[in-house]
């Protein structure tokens, strides 16, 4: 027995030192999260079906469900069983700045990962793939970008769609007036009230605004896709330890069948608050991402 104890003791000591070292070796944002025992999540208030309020002002959505799984993974990785979650609303204009200045630790909304933004913040593995199109009134006569001459187009401020549209107008010398709103619901309101004749944005956002409107049949998503974009969770820049945990959590979700269930629940089933169904089957590009999780932007 004495001999067995002598043999076991070094292994036990090594295990204890390893646990202690693990806690002490936390760096970057993980160390901050551990020290304050709180992780701060940035969320969107009206980015359906990714992150938005239900009728009880509770945050729900496809991206939010993924964020909750990531939090569990971080909680376990940093050994913080009582980790608190603080929620802060963000919008398209301030989300990058709030990540850069440390106000938020993680944002899973409908944020596009592209090369330009990757110079400012970090991004996780892709969680969704979208394309930009137009939402118009069904009787508008607008079917493509070629029909926008002399028209006003709504877009949400601070988005890649706004950047693309303003660049398009400048480079093509197009006779298009661009008006921006703080959020997607504001952009749709510009279309609904006639201030704009089209709303340019990610097709899933457009489908959601159409479906939740008072007259879905009065609107149509139209036009050839102008861009394809990778949607990802936003992270602190140059923080490989945190990124590794987040990417691992997303890869597990996408490859163990949970991701497909989440997609069906939010994109192909009735969702709160009105029980609308976006009816958007998973694209081949999205299926490829699930089969081989990666963090590559689509503007490579």
Topology record:
Elements: H1 2-24, H2 28-36, E1 38-43, E2 46-47, E3 51-53, E4 59-60, H3 62-77, E5 84-89, H4 95-100, E6 106-107, E7 112-113, E8 122-137, E9 152-156, H5 160-172, E10 177-181, H6 184-192, E11 198-202, H7 203-212, E12 219-222, E13 228-235, H8 240-255, H9 258-267, H10 284-291
Parallel strand pairs: 1-5, 1-6, 9-10, 9-11
Antiparallel strand pairs: 2-3, 3-4, 7-13, 8-11, 8-12, 8-13
**What's the CATH class of the largest domain, please?**
Alpha Beta
In CATH, the architecture of the largest domain is: 3-Layer(aba) Sandwich
Proportion of residues in helical segments? 40-55%
pLDDT average, as an integer? 92
CATH superfamily of the largest domain: Periplasmic binding protein-like II
The termini sit apart by 63 Å
Radius of gyration over all CA atoms, rounded: 22 Å
Structural class: alpha/beta
Biggest β-sheet description? 7 strands, mixed
**What is the number of independent domains?**
2
Number of helices: 10
CATH third-tier fold name of the largest domain: D-Maltodextrin-Binding Protein, domain 2
How many E strands? 13
């Amino acid at each position: 027995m004495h001999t067995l104890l002598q043999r076991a003791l070094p292994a036990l000591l090594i295990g204890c030192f390893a646990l202690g070292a693990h806690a002490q070796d936390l760096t970057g944002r993980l160390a901050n999260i551990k020290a304050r025992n709180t992780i701060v999540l940035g969320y969107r208030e009206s980015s359906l079906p990714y992150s938005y309020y239900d009728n009880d002002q509770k945050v729900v959505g496809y991206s939010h469900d993924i964020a909750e799984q990531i939090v569990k993974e971080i909680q376990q990785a940093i050994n913080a069983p009582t980790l608190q979650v603080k929620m802060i609303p963000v919008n398209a204009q301030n989300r990058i700045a709030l990540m850069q200045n440390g106000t938020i630790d993680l944002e899973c909304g409908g944020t596009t990962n592209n090369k330009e933004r990757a110079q400012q913040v970090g991004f996780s593995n892709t969680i969704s793939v979208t394309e930009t199109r137009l939402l118009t009134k069904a009787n508008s006569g607008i079917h493509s970008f070629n029909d926008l001459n002399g028209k006003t187009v709504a877009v949400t401020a601070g988005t890649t769609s706004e950047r693309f549209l303003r660049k398009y107008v400048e480079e093509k010398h197009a006779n298009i007036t661009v008006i921006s709103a703080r959020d997607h619901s504001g952009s749709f309101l510009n279309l609904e009230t006639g201030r704009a004749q089209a709303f340019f944005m990610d097709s899933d956002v457009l489908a959601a605004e159409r479906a939740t409107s008072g007259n879905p049949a009065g609107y149509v998503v139209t036009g050839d896709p102008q861009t394809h974009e990778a949607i990802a969770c936003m992270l602190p820049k140059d923080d490989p330890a945190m990124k590794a945990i987040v990417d691992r959590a997303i890869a597990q979700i996408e490859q163990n069948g949970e991701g497909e269930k989440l997609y069906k629940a939010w994109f192909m089933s009735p969702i709160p608050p009105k029980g609308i169904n976006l009816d958007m089957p998973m694209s081949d590009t999205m299926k490829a991402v699930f089969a081989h999780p990666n963090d590559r932007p689509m503007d490579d």
